[in-house]
Design the sequence.
């Protein structure tokens, strides 16, 4: 879909958002009020639990898109991630709609630690690995659920975007596997789409 690049003015985060929100709306569907669903009453994935002031039944797609752009794309700074790793931004966004943006970003940060950080040997042969070690003071990336300059810099420096995507999905799988068993197949199908 998109290729891992340096921040590129040719990559339009708004265009990446349009791809992400279309994918997510395809997963979320219309109005649901299932008392057994952990999301509770939702419409296009917008939940009454998160937006108690809204009449969920009348939320339409344009309203859902606005909410997603502000609360699930801009606030968690996925627009900045989209400039350097669009596919990771899209997957993190979709996960954020499903489990909450902060939790999805924690999945991403743990994936970064698995693939790009960890134990560092002094003067490592791979310059990218040493650069990351310097960014995180030879430790692992702090898993705080915030996309900040260090998280972005580490992603930009790490040459393994496919491995990051696999590790991100692995983190989500661990989370989903502890959920309600009847929902796990749907969550995993969504994760792999």
Sequence:
């Amino acid at each position: 879909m998109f290729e891992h690049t340096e921040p590129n003015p040719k990559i339009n985060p708004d265009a990446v958002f349009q791809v992400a929100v279309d994918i997510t709306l395809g997963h979320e569907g219309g109005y649901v009020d299932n008392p057994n669903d952990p999301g509770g009453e939702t419409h296009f994935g917008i939940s009454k639990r998160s937006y108690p002031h809204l009449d969920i039944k009348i939320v339409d797609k344009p309203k859902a898109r606005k909410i997603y752009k502000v609360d699930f794309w801009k606030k968690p700074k996925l627009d900045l991630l989209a400039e350097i790793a669009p596919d990771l931004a899209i997957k993190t966004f979709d996960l954020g709609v499903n489990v909450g943006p902060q939790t999805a970003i924690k999945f991403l940060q743990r994936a970064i630690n698995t693939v790009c950080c960890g134990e560092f040997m002094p003067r490592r042969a791979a310059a990218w690995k040493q650069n990351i070690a310097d960014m995180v003071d030879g430790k692992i990336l702090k898993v705080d659920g915030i996309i900040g300059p260090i998280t972005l810099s580490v992603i930009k420096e790490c040459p393994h975007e496919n491995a990051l995507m696999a590790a991100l999905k692995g983190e989500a799988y661990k989370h989903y596997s502890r959920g309600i068993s009847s929902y796990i197949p749907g969550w995993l199908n969504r994760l792999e789409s």
Notes: Residues 13-192 form a domain with the Chitosanase, subunit A; domain 1 fold (CATH 1.20.141.10). The first strand starts at residue 31 and ends at 32.
